[in-house]
Design brief:
- By secondary structure, the chain is of the alpha/beta class.
- The chain has a single domain, classed as 3-Layer(aba) Sandwich (Rossmann fold).
- It has ten helices and eight strands.
- An eight-stranded mixed sheet has the order 1-2-4-3-5-6-7-8, sandwiched between helices.
- Helix 5 packs parallel to helix 8.
Amino acid sequence: MVFSDFHFYSEALGIQTAVYVLMPEMDVMATQKKPLPVLYLLHGLSDDHTMWMRQTAVEQYAKDYRICIVMPAVNRSFYMDMDRGAKYDTYIAEELPRVIERYFPVSKKREDRFAAGLSMGGYGALKLGLSRPNRYAAVASFSGALAMEKVFTRRNELSAGYIREMENIYGDEKKLVSGKGNLSKLAEKMCRTPEKCPRIYIACGTEDFLFHANESFVERFGEKLNIEYHTEPGTHSWLLWNENIRRVLKWLNVEKAARA
């Protein structure tokens, strides 16, 4: 794979930002002239855009496929247009694809655009697919934070600092529950037209602190939205995420990386 540490000024964020980009080798690119499918691979709450490559073998797994992988940095934003902060949803969903499509040979077609992520990034990937089903063919969540709409009901369990952080992101409970940060609301809406829903893959370890949130989400929407769901023994850990990014690259069903 060809690796790029790509930096540019984001109009949505008002700052210089960084993105890691993996591309197939030139001999793979030479076998076909058509644009590449692209996977937006999202990081978790305490991570940054470097962690997928530092903690997993995603570069090795991607060598088998003709695909571009984009890993953006979003801080602790939950991929939202923050109530008091930067517009990360606008950045990830609108600006970043335009920039990547301008500078890299990737497809602009829905059937060639995917998103996946871990924890906060799993939430972000599902939010992209459920809020913009016309733009993503498939999305995947690993140990996703799939019940964020309940965060303000847990004030007694969470630190005052974390609650303030959530208020900066979502505003308050009413705004969170009624807005597009509520995955359950987005999924309920998607159930009205399930034929338009992207393919969805969800995985979570059975010892993960987010396991019950994942179980509940799949119990409510799994059959209606045809969710592919995987559970196995494991915690909130890179061991599980490393294995699932390997599985998802295969599940996306993109072209193999034929050599010239």
